[in-house]
Amino acid sequence: MNQKQRQNLERLLNPRHLAIIGGRDAEAVAKECERIGFTGQIWPVNPKREKIGGFKCFASVEDLPEAPDAVYLAIPREAAISTVKRLAEMGASGVVCYTAGFSEIGAEGTELEKSLVSASGDLALVGPNCYGVINYIDKVALWPFPHGGASPGYGAAIITQSGMLSSDLTMSQRSLPFAYMISVGNQSVLRLEDFIDVLCTKPEVKAIGLHIEGVKDISRFSEVALKALEAGVPIVALKTGSSEIGSELTVSHTASLSGSDDLFQALFDRLGIIRVSHPVQLLETLKYLCVAGIPKGKRLVGLTCSGGGATLLADHAEKIGLEFTRPSKKTAKRLTRLLHYTATVSNPLDYTTPIWGIPERVLPV
Amino acid sequence: MNQKQRQNLERLLNPRHLAIIGGRDAEAVAKECERIGFTGQIWPVNPKREKIGGFKCFASVEDLPEAPDAVYLAIPREAAISTVKRLAEMGASGVVCYTAGFSEIGAEGTELEKSLVSASGDLALVGPNCYGVINYIDKVALWPFPHGGASPGYGAAIITQSGMLSSDLTMSQRSLPFAYMISVGNQSVLRLEDFIDVLCTKPEVKAIGLHIEGVKDISRFSEVALKALEAGVPIVALKTGSSEIGSELTVSHTASLSGSDDLFQALFDRLGIIRVSHPVQLLETLKYLCVAGIPKGKRLVGLTCSGGGATLLADHAEKIGLEFTRPSKKTAKRLTRLLHYTATVSNPLDYTTPIWGIPERVLPV
Lengths: 365, 365
What we know:
The structure is a homodimer of 365-residue chains.
Chain A: H1 3-13, E1 17-22, H2 24-36, E2 41-45, E3 51-52, E4 55-56, E5 70-74, H3 77-90, E6 94-97, H4 107-120, E7 124-126, E8 132-135, E9 140-142, E10 155-160, H5 163-171, E11 178-183, H6 192-199, E12 205-212, H7 218-230, E13 235-239, H8 244-254, H9 261-271, E14 274-276, H10 279-291, E15 299-300, E16 303-304, H11 307-320, E17 323-324, H12 329-338, E18 349-350, H13 359-362
Parallel strand pairs in A: 1-2, 1-5, 5-6, 6-7, 10-11, 10-12, 12-13, 13-14, 15-17, 16-18
Antiparallel strand pairs in A: 3-4, 8-9, 8-11
Helix pairs in contact in A: 3-4, 6-7
């Protein structure tokens, strides 16, 4: 990512105007922009249709009022390449290339992807073979399917190599506050490293989540991961492709070499990256970091109205090296006064059903 | 469990009449019975109230029309013990003792629990310190809080030592078909072994889920676990209390000695019990067994519309020793014809978004 591309990426993330190029998929993007509350201009480009998503169509990119800050490209491959070239020449800022069928399908696609890259010039090009970008802070959804997720004005930035997985993550009902969702696809121009670089300095980004199939430039990845660490923005990574079949799939999915899992583990340890092994862990770990912040130590307190739940907490904490410290004598005395006689003072604490749902009795505990 | 108690337990599970003894909690049970569609008679017993849940109250158990098949007992400890004695003498069948404050709170409670047990005679006594019994097949909810869960006429029988956990399990939205939910509490008379014994022979029970803090009689547990295995009803166990704090908590929760985790693992292996480590795994494993049946081997097929998801599947399968076998040449050829050119034939298969949501193109795959 050169300096010009960095500026273009900033414009793409929060565009004043968005050209949507294509048919049905472009229409879906217009709808998602409307749903999220995008306030910029939307310019559909389609020579065969009058209107898309209620907006008047332009016949070609040359007819647009000015060079667009953002373009959503959902047309066949050859046309996509020539359009990218014209967009670069007219000074557009960024392009999401939703079109697939490039390096992920083999030799023929790899040649086409090379053409796409050289056509892109200084454009901030996301993809190809990606879903795009959602900016929950400034209300921008360059996204081809219904998206979920909400933001209280801050949250996690998630950068993934799987469009459908990122879609699923936005749809989860786990109350993760979102800041950005980026689906990077084949990373032909902009790579996940570039997004870490740009997003980790934004004050609304409290943590960064990564779904990684392969890293193209380990040294740059290390550099930006340390930049995020220094900025106090923790990174949580879901690295896939560790199995034999899985590593073959990452090649056909996003043309990624998944690499040795041991080396990735060593890299993550060195860079202070938190590794998770499941999408739910990714969401819950990010939520913890966004809502509660980075924990200062290993000691914790558990409050539950379930004896079974308290034991599950204690078992798991011991397994992963967290400590439920015992209540002091003074604390134990105070708790005994507050609790029903069937409860036992402990940490984690089961405060028991007699006070369950009675705020004036639970709150003092 | 003697022969008489076994008969009484069968009546308790599907009672013609239910006496609810207590105030607010008894009212909650009446409401849950109404919600599930209980068709038997409901007889509240309360000397101070006219009606509970719309039913006329009886002043004492001696005033009931006849000895009840089931009793829900939610009154203070001393009264509970004397009432159990009178119920046993009048020939009632089963009692759920919701009342807590027995052996789980220490020496004083242990003495009271001994009195409760000797008062119970041949009663099928569940608890004390338990939520009770839900029979989803015959529509019976001897349950003191709102319950969830549905049944297509068959499903899992779950037997737990944590009332709140069992409540949470019924509330999950994971579409597990339920047959029975049993919260056994302190297991002073009826133990989880007894419920395995009785439930594993019912044709509507496709699998049994256990949440275990401690087993009181290992030899009987082994006997009934093998009985279930022979009946083709697999058992899935969530055993808790393996940690230092966790094992202390099981004592104060249900007066259970959680025992050595290694010994439990060996026991489970020997008895063909599937062990899980998380409530979600318990639900999902039971669902698989209830819906798809017991798998015949280790080979599987994965179909997804997510390249990221396909890789996650492949990685996890390799980790746990399952096999995604490669498609044969013939199958690969047929799939290539059915799929979009951006898809790659593999197992697990990402059939890709171009055919996503289009039944006439996805179904042949």
